[in-house]
Design a protein that fits this description.
This protein is of the alpha+beta class and 96 residues long. Helix content is 49%, strand content 16%.
């Protein structure tokens, strides 16, 4: 199976999370624009707890793109999708 490229993974992540891919380029990383710095920080911590390396710059959350260890992007995609769902639930429960 061929490794997923950054553009394909970006499209997949945008569809699954509703977050836009950041135009910021960093070799080996893909950035997602979060609604706020605190949202990006919360999601980064949740990803690390789920054993997904991540980092952030301001409100942009960066996820690894590594064809050697994650050629399909499935692990990263599944983790960020679940964490975005948790973040939405967290936001709606705190708004109530």
């Amino acid at each position: 199976m061929p490794a997923i490229d950054r553009d394909t993974l970006g499209g997949l992540l945008e569809r699954k999370t509703g977050l836009r891919v950041s135009p910021a380029l960093a070799h080996g990383w893909i950035g997602l624009e979060c609604p706020s710095v605190s949202a990006a920080l919360w999601m980064m911590c949740a990803l690390v707890a789920a054993s997904v390396l991540s980092r952030r710059e301001g409100s942009v959350l960066f996820l690894p793109v590594n064809p050697a260890t994650g050629p399909t992007g499935a692990h990263v995609s599944l983790a960020i999708t679940r964490i975005c769902q948790l973040a939405e639930a967290r936001a709606s429960s705190s708004a109530s």
